[in-house]
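Notes from hallway chat w/ T.B., transcribed later so I don't forget. T.B. wanted the structure written out for a chain they're using in a teaching module, and asked if we could keep both sequence and structure tokens in one place. Agreed to drop them here.
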Amino acid sequence: RDVIRPWIQLEFGPQKRYPRIRIGRPKTEDLCALATAVDKMVRLGMEIEEGEIRARFGFSEPKPGARLLTVAAPVSTADLAGSAPLNASRPPDCPMPYIGSSTASISRMPKVSEGLRD
């Protein structure tokens, strides 16, 4: 107000109306909290317009034929039957037990308190 009015008068002469400048920060929104809330509400059956959520996150509508991100299909346990555990081959220098190891190998591990003695 104290800058705009004199400036406009200097540049353009006296006016009937003067412009206003509003200085401030844009409204911020916690998108993580929004995503969590939307996820819970949709799972409970609430219908939320997809375009509204896209606008809040700043995503555009996908173009026809574009590759889209999707949820990965769950793997059934029947597909994993007979396969080796994912951690069956551990690195040779790994002292920690792994799934499928016997309790005998765990008992051979040094106790943490042994290294703390004076």
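Follow-up for T.B.: Confidence is low (pLDDT under 50) at residues 97-106. Might be a good example for the class.
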